[in-house]
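User: I'm curious whether this sequence folds into something compact or stays loose and floppy. Could you predict its structure so I can see for myself?
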Amino acid sequence: MKSDRAVHARHNERVTLGLICAIEPERAHLGRELVGARSETVAHARFDTGRLDGHDVVLVGAGMGKVNAAVVATLLADRFGCRAVVFSGVAGGLDPALEIGDIVISDRAIQHDAGVIDDDRLEHYQAGHVPFINPTELLGYVVDPLLRDRVRRRLAGLTLPPLSRAAGGTDAPPQITYGTVLTGDQFLHCETTRDRLHGELGGSAVDMEGGAVAQVCASFGIPWLLIRALSDLAGRDSRFDFAAFVDEVAAGSATILRRLLPVL
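Assistant: Here's the prediction. I'll summarize afterward.
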């Protein structure tokens, strides 16, 4: 049987991969490695087309939030003809077993702020749907199983270097885990909400963009993947943790992305 690299090498040479980051510290780790970059500005964002580790890519900083992410994901799919889209960057941790610096790779993405409000409580429902108008049994978007399997094989046995103490690290290397990424247009700074989201939806990490990218890619019928390094634990100290740790933690997400390029 041919290796993952052999199977996908020809495809990678022909078609571009879309890479999205939300903020500059995330984008910079990839942007400075881009070879032969050509830039153009569309809507609110700069799209850099070039080669990363020998692969044709379009790199864009989306800005924060679901609308910004949806705009650039749509442009990557339609204007730039990308065959797949990957979001790389930082997120808040929801799973109490995870620590700052750990990596969450999406199996699934759910927009946790979408649903129906009844009796002052949000009942989660698929974004773009309402139970009594256009009902669906779906909740969230699932990563393409073939892509998921290639990713897991490619990362098997990989060990990341420990974060520095200044970035909240310990002597242990960051974990690489797979799970549900929750998305909403809020920066989560509340332990009660963190615990509720983890309990109700099984989220491992929370971000402000990934679920929108998944929804756009599903509309275009192209694969997508979220790679999220935990810069904070979404509790009462999250905004301080984020500011202190974002740059070094984002490097871990970029490292994972570059490792995965041959199989995306």
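Summary: Confidence is low (pLDDT under 50) at residues 1-14. The longest strand covers residues 84-93.
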